[in-house]
Every structure is written in structure tokens, then in C-alpha cells.
């Protein structure tokens, strides 16, 4: 079975989900073994088997998974019960959200931040792909505004999990990139000074935007993991370039819980 990381916070509130590792699949090197991307040169049959294994590990029907054509932008897509997988994949967007029980939302990453969001009361969920370009474009606040409209409640009632991504020790950027990220997220602590060029802590950046929207700190989980540093567990485009596979982070909408708080 596919190997995944899980958030204790999302599990506690009954949301099926998972952040895929690179192990537990069938792909040959350099995509060994759980690559889920269809466009990196991996064998199509291997990719489809990996996706089936991941669906079983997460706990959703394979045909219920919805993804988009990710472009490092700020577009958000609402997924309804009638949306097909092919239709959704054709849409350029970096966040998906739904209230339809059993629908699974997924985002692909290989250094960017995968962010899974859930509303305990309604069972609604969202999945975000947030690299530095997406943060600068405003993907997190855009998705949070759309999620508030969908759920009809306050961000303080939501829960979130930040998935594995390139961490600050490895994420060296140019001065102008660091400045754009800090300006976009409004959190100076996201800039980490190191000898040479600046580094950016994407987890701090994402968390700052969640808190600015009104989420509570204790309802934001970070499952850990550095994609760049941990080569046996994760793919990394910055480390391996075009020889890198991709991860898939998935969350499944559940039934509403009117008694939740």
C-alpha cells in the first residue's frame, strides 16, 4: 500500500486524508516508487497503479478524486457533485474546495506547500498548492475567502494541516523573491537570515496568512518533513530537477456535523 503522512488534527475530526511519501508504489528509478504525476516521463501504467494504491491508503473511491491544472496562481475552483475528473483537470487553478460528501480533492507538489483545510461543522474541505509564486499571487487568502463563503461560518471554526515541503534550511532565494514573499504574507519572521542569500520559511508564511484570516493557532497542524533534505522519503524538484516525481496530498469531504464546535 502507498505510504502516507497524516495529520492528527484532521484524523481527530474524522476527515480522511493523506500526504503521500515517495515509497509504497511501483515506479522505477528515478521515479521510485510512488510518483503520481502523469507528465514527468514515468510509465503510465505505474502512475495509475500508484494512484490506486494511494486512494486505498487515503480511503476514497479512485473515481472521486478531483485535481486541477496547477499554474502557481491564485485561482480557486469549487467542485460540485457533477464535475468530472477530466473537466476539473482542464481548469487552471491552485486551490479546490467542495461540500459534497465523498469527493476527494488533491494537489500535486515536489517542494511547494500542500495545505489541507476542513470545516468541522459542514464537512467541507479544501486543498491548496502554495509555492512561493502562489503565495505572492495570493492563493491562500483567495482560497480562505472562498471557503468562508462556502461554509458560512468563521475561520476560527476551521482546521488545517500543512504538508511536507522544502523547509527554510534548504529554501535559499534571491533577495527580491524574499522581499516579495514577506510583503505578500505580512510576516517578517518568514525571512530567515543565513550566510549568503536569504532563506524563506514557507510554513511560517502560510501559517501567518491563516492566522491573519482568523484561524486559531491550535487548529493549524504541521505534519513535518523537508522534501529537499529527506531524499528517501520525498521527491524534490529543486534537488533532482526533471528526474523528480510528484506527491499528492488528498482530503475527502465528509457529512456535516451540526453538533461540532
Describe the structure.
The structure is a single chain. The protein has a six-stranded mixed sheet with strand order 4-5-8-7-9-12. It has a five-stranded mixed sheet with strand order 1-2-13-6-3. A two-stranded antiparallel ribbon has the order 10-11. The mean pLDDT is 95. It has eight helices and 13 strands. The chain has helices at 8-12, 44-58, 85-89, 132-137, 139-151, 175-185, 202-212, 237-240; strands at residues 4-5, 17-20, 65-66, 76-78, 95-98, 104-109, 113-119, 125-130, 158-162, 191-192, 199-200, 220-222, 247-252. The protein is an alpha+beta fold. Helix 3 (85-89) links the parallel strand 4 and strand 5 (95-98). The protein is globular, with a radius of gyration of 17 Å.
Reconstruct the topology from this structure:
Layout: E1 4-5, H1 8-12, E2 17-20, H2 44-58, E3 65-66, E4 76-78, H3 85-89, E5 95-98, E6 104-109, E7 113-119, E8 125-130, H4 132-137, H5 139-151, E9 158-162, H6 175-185, E10 191-192, E11 199-200, H7 202-212, E12 220-222, H8 237-240, E13 247-252
Parallel strand pairs: 3-6, 4-5, 9-12
Antiparallel strand pairs: 1-2, 2-13, 5-8, 6-13, 7-8, 7-9, 10-11
Amino acid at each position: 500500500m502507498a505510504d502516507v503522512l497524516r495529520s492528527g488534527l484532521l484524523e481527530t475530526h474524522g476527515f480522511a486524508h493523506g500526504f503521500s511519501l515517495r515509497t509504497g508504489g511501483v515506479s522505477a528509478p528515478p521515479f521510485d516508487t510512488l510518483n503520481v504525476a502523469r507528465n514527468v516521463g514515468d510509465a503510465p501504467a505505474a502512475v495509475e497503479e500508484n494512484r490506486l494504491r494511494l486512494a486505498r491508503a487515503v480511503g476514497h473511491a479512485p473515481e472521486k478524486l478531483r485535481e486541477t491544472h496547477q499554474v502557481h496562481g491564485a485561482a480557486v475552483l469549487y467542485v460540485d457533485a457533477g464535475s468530472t475528473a477530466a473537466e476539473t483537470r482542464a481548469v487552471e487553478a491552485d486551490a479546490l474546495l467542495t461540500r459534497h460528501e465523498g469527493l476527494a480533492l488533491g494537489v500535486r507538489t515536489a517542494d511547494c506547500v500542500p495545505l489541507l483545510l476542513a470545516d468541522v461543522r459542514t464537512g467541507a474541505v479544501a486543498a491548496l498548492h502554495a509555492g512561493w509564486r502562489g503565495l505572492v499571487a495570493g492563493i491562500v487568502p483567495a482560497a480562505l475567502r472562498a471557503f468562508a463563503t462556502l461554509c458560512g461560518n468563521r475561520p476560527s471554526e476551521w482546521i488545517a494541516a500543512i504538508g511536507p515541503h522544502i523547509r527554510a534550511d534548504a529554501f535559499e532565494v534571491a533577495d527580491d523573491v524574499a522581499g516579495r514573499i514577506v510583503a505578500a504574507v505580512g510576516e517578517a519572521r518568514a525571512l530567515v537570515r543565513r550566510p549568503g542569500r536569504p532563506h524563506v520559511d514557507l510554513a511560517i508564511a502560510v501559517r501567518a496568512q491563516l492566522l491573519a484570516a482568523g484561524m486559531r493557532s491550535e487548529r493549524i497542524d504541521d505534519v513535518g518533513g523537508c522534501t529537499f533534505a529527506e531524499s528517501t522519503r520525498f521527491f524534490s524538484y529543486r534537488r533532482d530537477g526533471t528526474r523528480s516525481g510528484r506527491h499528492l496530498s488528498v482530503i475527502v469531504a465528509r457529512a456535516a456535523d451540526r453538533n461540532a464546535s
